[in-house]
Amino acid sequence: MALRTRSRRDRPQTRDRSSRKDGDQQQGGDRGAPSHSRRELAAEERFWPTPADDHIEEYPDRDHRDGQKWLDLAHLPSRSPQTTRVLLRSFGYAFAGVAYIVRTQQNARIELAIAVGAVALAAWLGLSPLEWAVLVITIALVVALEWINTSLELAVSLASPERHRSAKAAKDVAAACVLLGAITSIIVGLLLFAPRLVSRL
Length: 201
Fold this sequence. Notes:
Helix Hairpins; 0% strand
């Protein structure tokens, strides 16, 4: 009887100890949760910089698949000497194209002469800024169409030295584009210059 009584008395104590241990573990887990979340936030801030950062730092382990490194964009050179040389060379090619057009294409020379005359007449008549903008855009459109026509004719002649219906059609369509631009420029010139010329007569 004494043994049974002692064992019954010990059982609640065992339950209290086990429940107390579970409570301590639960409290310990609750205490550890905020620290774990703080570590995650610190890791996120380290890997993902905030907009307040001045530049993007280098993170070697950002991409584990290919091992690419994030570049520090603040230390990248704005323009290398090689890029400047390529840019100057491209401008040289463009001016060489202009020289070729003026030297070999009679229609282009005529259109440039008409453009110079139109600009001189506009300066004498005193066009408004909006009218100047319309005139400059019209001149640039006609000149650009003529130059595109020339380049297309050269490309077609190189691709098809023999006479071909498709090659002829391509050249004819390009010439039609130039004709349309020329007719449009005549209409714009009449609208801009005719009223002012009539008022001065």
